[in-house]
Each structure stands twice: as structure tokens, then as C-alpha cells.
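re: that chain from earlier
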Amino acid sequence: MSLHLHPPIPAALEPQLLLLPLMGVSVSAGFPSPAEDWAEERVDLNLRYVQHAEATFYFTVSGDSMVSPIAERSIPDSATLIIDRALSAKHDDIVVAVIDSDFTVKRLYCRGKRLALIAENPAYPPIVIGDEQELSIWGVVTAWIVRPR
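^ sequence. v structure.
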């Protein structure tokens, strides 16, 4: 099964601020705590996650090639990717790439003359870029959003 991405959705250039409270404490996964007593500031997710608005796009992931056994590296099916096209991709970045006119999201491996796109899911082999192939890095993934339901 390959990974497909829905077409990119551009970020709003002048988004309306939506300041939401940022809690000053971490939430416990164990015993509950009265977290609302600890709200310290308000944040706008656009300000937090969009560095270059004119170059930022969203993609919706379709597929499981980026589902990792390591939770913090895992990007599940239906996640929303935040892509910044103004950033230069470097080794170990998660990127949206174009291979043979298809979008894919993978981790970039770039060491010496070796260039590959690596899935986080070990069931998928690396895509090693040969001399005859053309790879275009469309943008760098800066964050992803997962809905718990």
C-alpha cells in the first residue's frame, strides 16, 4: 500500500487570531489535576505553527507508511500535515516529496551521494533515489495534527 496525500490546502495569509488559553502545566496522564487554575497565557495556533504564512500549506495524510512503532515519530492516517515550503530540507527532516508526479510524505535520508525517502513504518522499504529518477522536495513538514476521534 502506498501513501497518498490529498491536494495541498494553503494556509490563510491573514488568519483571524484565535487566542486560546495555554496551560502553564503539563497534563498528567495519571491522576487528574485542576489544570484550569494554571492557565498562564493565550496562544494562536497559527502564530505557534506557521512561520511563513505565504509558503505554508496543509495536507491530509492517507495511508500508513508513516505509522511508526516509535510514538513521537508516528504520523497516522488522516493526520493533517503543516508544510513550510520556505524551509530547505535537510537530512532526517520529514518532507513532502514528488516522485513520478505523485506526492508522498517520508523522512529524508541525505548522506553523501546517497539519497532516499524513508517510511517510518518498517513494512515499507526505503525509496532509494537513483540517477535516473527525479526527486522534488515540495516542502518540509513542521508539525502534524491528529484528531483523537
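The chain is about 5% helix and 40% strand.
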